[in-house]
Fold this sequence. Notes:
The complex is a heterodimer of chains A (79) and B (188). Chain A has four helices and no strands. Chain A is an all-alpha fold. Chain A has a single domain (2-78), classed as ACP-like (Non-ribosomal Peptide Synthetase Peptidyl Carrier Protein, Chain A). In chain A, helix 1 packs antiparallel against helix 2 (37-51) and helix 1 (2-17) crosses helix 4 (66-78). By secondary structure, chain B is α+β, with helices and mostly antiparallel strands. Chain B contains five helices and eight strands. Chain B has an eight-stranded mixed beta sheet with strand order 1-2-3-4-5-6-8-7, sandwiched between helices. Chains A and B meet through helix 2 and helix 3 of A and helix 4 and helix 5 of B.
Amino acid sequence: xxxxxxxxxxxxxxxxxxxxxxxxxxxxxxxxxxxxxxxxxxxxxxxxxxxxxxxxxxxxxxxxxxxxxxxxxxxxxxx
Amino acid sequence: xxxxxxxxxxxxxxxxxxxxxxxxxxxxxxxxxxxxxxxxxxxxxxxxxxxxxxxxxxxxxxxxxxxxxxxxxxxxxxxxxxxxxxxxxxxxxxxxxxxxxxxxxxxxxxxxxxxxxxxxxxxxxxxxxxxxxxxxxxxxxxxxxxxxxxxxxxxxxxxxxxxxxxxxxxxxxxxxxxxxxxxxxxxx
Lengths: 79, 188
């Protein structure tokens, strides 16, 4: 499951940020100049679609890194 | 200026700023991260009230509070100002870090400027170093135009600005995607 999550996050972020993001690579929103508020939503919704999960409004605002996104997917599937 | 433009979107809305919003605006503008690329703001609420009082008498200036319609709480501020010859600047755009209102507040601001006020074009000038906001405008589909050298001096440093413009044709092409994202944030 973790490998699948890494693969999907890599694919989603590579498309959204316009640079290669390796599976498992840690990326923080604050360090990425092009991870803007619009792309942030596109990233979240792509993850929702890929894993059949839902981010609350609070989670949308607080998700700040690949680790946060991965933790959300894992928690949703554990629930 | 005193205005009565109220727009409700899917999850967020905009309404006119009032004197009662002074404390909220001070909180936004003195947030170290949000306030990084704006002119320094007094932490004194009375100073902000005085600024709003002057703003209310100033023509061609529309200042809004962005509200979370479900929570009934303010989450940001935005303005359309310097209206002249069918054009206006939009800015003073600050959204609380705890809210995903950026996309819908931009959408509502374009609606206010281009649909309600009937402007032909709105433009936004962003400090070039403010890379996330510059990127937002690029991502939204706004037309990146000229660079404005030595646009502002903040904290003893001089910054260039990047100007993005949106005219009616551009707005028609941008709007569906912004609407789609705003709808999805609202879960509708």
